[in-house]
Write a structure and sequence with these properties.
Elements lengths: L2 E8 L3 H14 L1 E4 L2 E6 L1 H15 L6 E7 L1 H5 L19
Antiparallel strand pairs: 1-3, 1-4, 2-3
């Protein structure tokens, strides 16, 4: 069962920021400009962080954070405007 992660970033350079956003959009739903909801197993998240997402950043200038949300916490999310918290589809066609 996938965990639910709130991933956010602060990237100084436009090129790095755009590249990271495109990578995140492949696996997550954007809910605000630099905030994404990601239904991922922890191991998958770690792999994406280490093999793709963090490689784009200069950690002396940029930051990325991933906050876990358990099912009880996710159920308590309050949304005002915008889409409801991301629910992954039952199936995925590749």
């Amino acid at each position: 069962m996938a965990n639910f992660w709130l991933v956010c970033y602060d990237v100084r350079d436009d090129k790095r920021r755009n590249k990271l956003a495109k990578l995140l959009e492949q696996r997550c739903q954007r809910v605000q400009y630099s905030v994404f909801e990601c239904p991922l197993e922890e191991k998958v998240l770690e792999d994406l962080l280490n093999k793709r997402w963090l490689r784009v950043l200069k950690l002396e200038e940029d930051s990325l954070r991933a906050y876990p949300l358990n099912p009880a916490t996710k159920a308590q999310v309050k949304v005002y405007g915008g889409p409801a918290p991301y629910e992954p589809p039952d199936f995925l066609i590749l």
